[in-house]
Amino acid sequence: xSDNVDIGVWSSELKRGVIELCILSLLRNNEMYxxxxxxxxxxxxREVLSVEEGTLYPLxxxxxxxxxxxxxxxxxxxxxxxxxxxxxxxxxxFERMRFxxxxxxxxxxxxxxGELDVQ
Amino acid sequence: xxxxxAMEIIEEYLEEVAKHLPEDLRDEVIEELRTHLIDLAxxxxxxxxxxxxxxVKIMGDPRKLAGEFVSIxxxxxxxxxxxxxxxxEKTYRFGxxxxxxxxxxxxxxxxxxVVLIIVASIIRVMYGLLFYPSATNPFNILTDAIVSIIxxxxxxxxxxxxxxxxxxxxxxxxxxxxxxxxxxxxxxxxKDYQKDVGKISGLFASGAAIIxxxxxxxxxxxxxxxxxxxxxxxxxxMGLAVIYEGIIKIIRALYFAIENRDNYFxxxxxxxxxxxxxxxxxxINLYPESLQYIWLSATEITxxxxxxxxxxxxxxxxxxxxxxLIKIISIVLILIIFTYFIVSIIRYTRTKPKQNIFYNPTx
Lengths: 119, 363
Fold this sequence. Notes:
heterodimer; A: alpha+beta; three-stranded antiparallel sheet; 4 helices; 3 strands; globular; B: mainly alpha; two-stranded antiparallel ribbon; two-stranded antiparallel sheet; flat; disordered C terminus
């Protein structure tokens, strides 16, 4: 019975916004290229936030077109790599997202803990 | 040193992505994806055919991937065309955007028609001044040309916008479908039964349409004699369009029954059946006075047998005050048909799926 409970869609929708926040956070102090970002997210979150390869680059492009990320091409190890870096505008966006995230987690936790108390 | 075959696999995948990408993004995105795929395929050591196949599979459907980039461009474009209307607390937004895929065609088509109008106007002025100098007013011809160009821009924009909206809706459905398939991680290729039912009903509907149209035309030709040439050509064109579409639908259904997949080429050529109407519409535009309409004239119809209905059917010519309207409608229809034809061909050449052995969305 419990095998039929599928939270796949819900979890991927939830992750989508969080991944954006995490990418901005990763690029605060370091410039990184796509593959490096994907790998870092995977390792740091122990696969919980593994971004699908097919969605990473469109997401980076979206952030770039918003002006939140700046890019620079470099030849590293004989291969051209596109390095991403947080812009001033991206930093503002990150700070706001971070603030909102803190409030969201706190308030949602209150509800979840309340539910636990009732049980 | 890369494994050549492994590199070929990556290049074939990238070629497929590139086909669906907007030109201005293509080089940069492909370069970035190439490096990523090589990194991914070399994660556990030197790149092999297997690791390259695995990497492109992880990357997903090339068309969907390219679609994500196109949608980013679309978002930007939509904002620039959006009109917001604030009523009280609510804000209503109206987007009159043209799909980025169609934008270039829109400009090309427009430039072609504008040049055509300019050339036609110049010829009109020269011809008039040479043969009817007293009756030719170049200023009037110039005004005609400007008004035609304005109408043309408005009309083609609306037509392209409608097509963009339809395509957007279709793409949304496609994306949702692919998303559901991937979410469920199906491991067996299943038949799309809905599609099957659609094809079978299409097969019967096409057969029925051809038979019914054949019967109607036969009845008409035997019982109504005073039809003008233009009206007859119009009816014949409609018949040809119905028969053509029906035959293609039947071939598609048979192809689907044998191959268990749709044929993209047949799907495209089925869409352009309306081209059969173009000659008739041209004739209507040139000779609106020859167009007729069929009317059931009796107020009380009594039928002893089915053929009695022809006693009440009468054929009339359209009154002369409606001729300008007929001319406008016919030219608008011709433009719609041509726009749709060009869009269908562009869609076919730009989105034609290539057989991809590495990726199957149902796996």
